[in-house]
Amino acid sequence: MPEPSTVADFVRGNDPGGVAFHAPEGTFTWRDYDELSSRLARSYVEAGFLPGERLAVLVTGGALTHVAYLAAQKAGLVTVGIGPRAGDAEITHLLRKTGAVALATRATHRGRPGAEIAARCGAARHVVLDLDALPPPLPSSPAGGRGIAADDVFFLNSTSGTTGVPKVVRQTMDNRKYFGPLAHAAGRFGPDEVFASVLPAPYGFGLWSAHVVPAMYGYPTVLTAEFDAAQTLRLIAEHRVTVLCAVTAQFIMLLNDPGFAAADLSSLRVLFTGGERVPVARAREFEERTGCAVLQFYGSNEAGPISVTTVDDPPERRLATAGRPIPAMRVRLLAGGEDAAEGQVAANGPGCTPGYLDDEAANAALFRPDGWLLTGDLGAIDEDGYLSITGRIADFIIRGGHNVSALVVEEAVASHPAVAAVAVVAAPDPVLGERACAYVVTRAPLSLDDLRGHLDAGGVTKQNWPERLVALPELPLGTGGKVDKAALRADAAARFATAPGCFTTAPG
Known about the structure:
Blueprint: H1 7-13, E1 19-23, E2 26-29, H2 30-46, E3 54-58, H3 63-74, E4 78-82, H4 88-98, E5 102-105, E6 108-109, E7 112-113, H5 114-120, E8 126-128, E9 153-158, E10 168-172, H6 173-177, H7 179-187, E11 195-197, H8 204-217, E12 221-223, H9 229-239, E13 243-245, H10 248-256, E14 270-273, H11 280-290, E15 293-300, E16 304-308, H12 315-320, E17 324-325, E18 332-335, E19 338-339, E20 342-347, H13 360-366, E21 373-381, E22 387-392, E23 396-399, E24 402-405, H14 406-414, E25 419-429, E26 433-442, H15 448-457, E27 468-471, H16 485-495, E28 504-505
Parallel strand pairs: 1-12, 3-4, 3-5, 4-9, 5-8, 11-12, 11-13, 13-14, 14-15, 26-27, 27-28
Antiparallel strand pairs: 1-2, 6-7, 9-10, 15-16, 16-17, 18-19, 18-20, 20-21, 21-22, 23-24, 25-26
Helix pairs in contact: 2-3, 9-10
């Protein structure tokens, strides 16, 4: 009997009566998951879809998401995962770019008829996904022999970056499976873990944490339609969640929720977070208030996991670094194209994507001619082998010819006790070109002078002080759940186009 290698193999091999999902639609066993996905795969086959064709799936979170993804795999179809908050322009672009033969949605998607979205975005066909309207099961699957292999591309997802037209990343199951044993070791998983993944499922973090890794180990997973902090706190308590997966903005929203202090989070052992900068002070606060370990994989949708922090790392290393590089990912730091003590992070290992779909220029920028994948991050490795991310190649404020790291300014601003969340972008300046603008969500009123006094007392270099401060009720989030810096840059460009000096602005 061959070893299980695909998600379908893992699902079929788990305890049939065990829980696969606690979802908005109800509770589903592994048997339910297997049978529903086989019935949906049958409907794809009977609808005339051919092996290797691409099917775009646009749904909010829940069991249906994973049934649809698994059904496509069983029918030999490549899933085009579209973020649930994607606008019509992005959906249209992804349908065209991938050559998807159809767009699959619920009858209604976020208040709009799915058929209307399909028509407006130029979908060749529209498929309505409904778990209550699937064809009956057959003794054997009509998709037998059509399924996608573990080393084939099974999923196309878009970069969740916030500038320009999204690129399409090719994923194999082996890419996403690679997280499994790494996460298991990092979190010291036992046999009875309960996952909760509150991320948009189509993106890299959501894909491994809800669709792939729990199936590998037979862990039940708590799913939400869309992220809501108060609801997530209730679900953690109700289902005794032990492993929570959430991007940085989401775990900060949990901390900021008025119900956090009263929530029963005693079951939590591990929080996997990341996707963007993890602020040390807030991560430490989460650990202190819950007793769970805050861990992160450093990497990207394209690179997969590059380094990881573990429950065995000393707290300061766990919270203030990106962990030790994963040996098989063969991490290098490059400066001027040569190996250096500090430089651009590059990787070449089993977690890396095969590349972008039909985009020679983007692949030429992503990969060196020798096959090494280049990230957009700058890093350094200390004497104990821990990797720290020191900045992003493109995430700088160029002030009077000097490069100021947005990441460093964010870390400094986040240290103020009144700051609940922060994102730093460049604001235009008629004299210096750009100044650092900090957008903050605060627990109490905060002026720029108050913030500067705090940074001065903390010994923060003045170059790393923000020169503009904007308070918002909440930071805007992009389709991948990360802070939408493109929206903040556009706001700063409009807000400070002709503004001299340095000042605080109120919510606006």
